[in-house]
Design goal:
13 strands; seven-stranded mixed beta sheet
Length: 446
């Protein structure tokens, strides 16, 4: 690499460092090109909560369809919210399967869950998947809030290395894809998430002036970066394009920050402190921030990973020995079934905590939960055999009255889960003709 190229690339990075006041720069999301729709008085919110490594399906899946479905042992913590739920059977994530690519089900599962596209098998920088459902929504309606979306996770994001049979670690560590070559990193530090939500005060004259200065820095960075010649290699061009995309989006964000009203921190809310050592406290800190984000309309789109796909998280506080991933390969041993059920139920307890927060906040004639569509589930059903059909998936919330809840709906086997995403995107106000391997819009939801 010649010196001009090296200096130019460092200038881009230095420019971004000067221009950004908030952490988590890499996750800035797309801005819609079209004029956004008028925001309703009580907007709909969309959240995707991902659980890795599959579940013990006999302790999850009801056997009775309709409103009389039974609450199985794993879902017992959600019993108080049965009338707010829709449980699904028969949904499939085909692009998590090998389809000729050999091992790597965990990496493919988390990547395909919201993109429904087969991940390109690589441990390098030439990543390729598809646009995820959350980012379809963010591209369409993300301009209506201070943050187009939030990408959260319990485990620290890992962006390099081979994590699963020749698949990059990136594939396991995020659900969100801005475009087919740009995955969005997750953030797990509650303090940084809080700062990103509330640190800026766009109506503060000092910060407005500072943003203008940043704008001039961005102009300089763009000019410098665009002067690079075509001698850059393929990986460098891809990395540079990602930087340029981020810079362009920063420009739009800075311009919009001066026009949007400030987000006020509710009374009695104080910033969290770093990452809690206790897993439950960590999860609930992020759940509290998710609630705040929806309550203050800081964003309407959130993804949260309870663990990276293939997670080796330990759950000793449940009197469970061994790692989650190892236990999920249960080998049909009852001991492992019991351990896995405990882990699965623990995750559902954290879901119930989040849902109880949403339901406790009045909004209009109902609650914040009534205007939400919270998806909970994963792209692996049985972790021992890495099955990707009849997935453990449910939604909570009425989606502003667009979902008829309190039911178990069992769809024909091999129904693409992408059909559910299309149905939810329609209700969110971001309909699409197709996403991934969808072949229609899931019916019988209203």
């Amino acid at each position: 690499m010649n010196m001009k190229t090296a200096i130019s690339r460092r200038t881009v990075l230095r420019g971004l460092g000067v221009a950004v006041a908030l952490p988590f720069l890499e996750s800035l999301l797309p801005r819609a090109l079209a004029t956004p729709a008028v925001s309703p008085a009580h907007p709909r919110r969309l959240a995707f909560l991902y659980i890795p490594n599959g579940v013990h399906m006999p302790a999850w899946m009801p056997t009775t369809e309709g409103a009389d479905f039974e609450i199985r042992p794993i879902l017992e913590p959600m019993r108080p919210f049965k009338e707010d739920m829709i449980m699904f059977g028969g949904l499939t994530c085909d692009k998590a399967r090998a389809n000729g690519d050999g091992g790597g089900d965990h990496a493919r599962a988390s990547t395909a869950f919201l993109t429904n596209v087969q991940a390109f098998k690589t441990a390098g920088l030439n990543l390729h998947a598809g646009v995820s459902a959350d980012q379809v929504a963010a591209a369409r309606l993300g301009t209506q809030t201070r943050l187009p979306s939030l990408e959260l996770a319990i485990e620290r994001f890992r962006g390099v290395g081979n994590c699963d049979n020749g698949y990059s670690c990136v594939y396991e560590h995020t659900l969100a894809w801005r475009n087919p070559t740009l995955p969005l990193p997750t953030e797990g530090d509650p303090r940084l998430v809080f700062n990103r939500m509330f640190a800026e005060r766009p109506n503060d004259p000092t910060l407005v002036a500072r943003n203008r200065e940043r704008g001039s820095v961005l102009d300089a960075v763009l000019g410098e970066a665009n002067s690079l010649d075509t001698r850059l290699g393929g990986n460098d061009r891809q990395k540079l394009e990602q930087y340029l995309t981020t810079v362009r989006e920063l420009e739009q964000r800075i311009g919009r920050a001066d026009m949007l009203p400030p987000v006020q921190v509710p009374d009695g809310v104080s910033p969290p402190r770093n990452i809690p050592a206790d897993l439950t406290e960590h999860i609930r800190s992020l759940a509290d921030l998710m609630t705040l984000a929806f309550q203050t309309d800081s964003t309407r789109i959130i993804t949260l990973m309870f663990g990276r796909e293939g997670s080796e998280q330990q759950y000793r506080m449940l009197d469970v020995s061994g790692s989650h991933h190892l236990i999920s390969h249960h080998q049909n041993r009852q001991e492992n079934f019991d351990k896995l059920t405990k882990i699965n139920r623990y995750h559902v307890q954290q879901l119930a905590y989040f849902i109880s927060n949403l339901k406790a906040i009045p909004e209009g004639d109902g609650t914040l939960l009534d205007n939400c569509m919270v998806v909970y589930g994963g792209a692996i059903s049985d972790g021992n055999s890495h099955q990707h059909h009849n997935l453990p998936v449910l939604t909570v919330g009425k989606g502003g009255g667009s979902l008829r809840t309190g039911r178990f709906i069992n769809y024909p086997r091999e129904t693409p889960i992408a059909n559910l995403w299309r149905a939810l995107l329609e209700r969110f106000g971001a309909p699409v003709d197709a996403i991934g391997d969808s072949n229609g819009v899931l019916d019988n939801l209203a």
